[in-house]
Amino acid sequence: MEYTDLNGFACSLSFNKGVFQIESRHVLVIAKFNGKWLLTEHKERGLEFPGGKAETGESLAHAAKREVYEETGGLIEDLEWFAEYMVQSEPPFTKTVFTGTVSAIEKIELLETKGAVLADDLDVDSKFSFLMKDEGMKQIMERVKLDGKWDD
Description:
The protein is an alpha+beta fold. It has one domain: Alpha-Beta Complex (Nucleoside Triphosphate Pyrophosphohydrolase). 17% of the residues lie in helices and 41% in strands. β7 and β8 (93-105) form a beta hairpin. The radius of gyration is 14 Å and the shape is globular. The mean pLDDT is 94. It holds the Pfam family NUDIX.
């Protein structure tokens, strides 16, 4: 799927591994804790899924778990690859989307965010980061819901 993000960059989204030529070094994690969506409140952007950049020598799975912990205090289980998207910024980059289940949320000192926010639904409104509002994120969230991983 091709779309333009809210920064004006051309993007490509795929639910298949290995589609993009640029190796992914960024992660985004869509997770639930006790039946609620785990979000973080970025101090400037608002509510969004936790994520970030892998450190040198770090696997994407480890980066995903680390970023969730650093931004929310959440401990991730059942981490699974879900999708990737490439952003044609300068320089271009690819981000890997994971899903997972949070087993616990620890109280930690937070630097970049205001911490964990648990949501019953993903009705994106003015409290949400612009990163949650582009067509790619809408498709990712719809596909996560259709996946049925967390159906009761």
